[in-house]
């Protein structure tokens, strides 16, 4: 699949810090990076994924991470800063975007981050030789729309097959009110691995279905890390909601 040509790629200065930059694609904010402090995660859903990453293994221990969707490489920079010695792979569809990001925001010196240009659905099978990964992060959007394959059992099965024992899959789900996209994504993961334990975290108003916004869907083939739900609820950003088990089932299917 050929990448869609981006009409306008810009970097906007962050008014909240001296070094933060927001990547905008055709006027839509896509990523935020603070090269002065790569542990500063500005977007709320990215901070929640950061908390998920923090819960894997021992604090500070190196991870083997796969990022499907590159953007400004915010989370790879976060992992490199918080987990020295980590090995990471990033798959990004648009070579022009990747080139401009690296020119403006070079990767940290010494970071082991391999960059793959390609369509995630096409290359995921090739990544089996590099598996398993402690965490697989799926954040695939063109402006505000994900590719259709993201919410298919086949693609989710391919992602889960790359996850290491006790590892996690985390999916960013940008949704309208009503949770239709989150329901479709959750259904795809459940069909791909019916035994995987699921968790969803996000703003309380988003997970109630009242407002549009981002939710983070976490799938754990070998069970969720202990106290992950408590960590996500306590660390926010607030107001934070975390759904698991029967509460998650009711939020997704209770009105059906």
Explained architecture:
This protein is an alpha/beta fold and 256 residues long. Helices cover 30% and strands 28% of the residues. It has nine helices and eleven strands. It has an eight-stranded mixed sheet, sandwiched between helices. Strands 1-2-3 form a three-stranded antiparallel sheet, with helices on one face. Strand 7, helix 5 and strand 8 (163-175) form a beta-alpha-beta unit. Helix 1 (44-54) runs parallel beside helix 2 and helix 5 packs across helix 6. The protein is globular and about 45 Å long. The termini are far apart. The model has no long low-confidence stretch (mean pLDDT 93).
Number of strands: 11
| Largest sheet properties | 8 strands, mixed
Tertiary shape = globular
Q: How would you write the strand order of the largest sheet?
A: 6-5-4-7-8-10-9-11
Please mark out the parts with pLDDT under 50 across 5 or more consecutive residues, or reply none: none
Q: Any idea what the radius of gyration is?
A: 17 Å
Keywords, please?
256 residues; alpha/beta; eight-stranded mixed beta sheet; three-stranded antiparallel beta sheet; 11 strands; 28% strand
Question: What's the topology here?
Answer:
Blueprint: E1 9-13, E2 21-25, E3 28-33, H1 44-54, E4 64-68, H2 74-82, E5 87-92, H3 95-104, E6 112-117, H4 120-123, E7 133-138, H5 153-160, E8 163-175, H6 180-192, E9 197-203, H7 204-207, E10 213-220, H8 228-235, E11 240-244, H9 245-253
Parallel strand pairs: 4-5, 4-7, 5-6, 7-8
Antiparallel strand pairs: 1-2, 2-3, 8-10, 9-10, 9-11
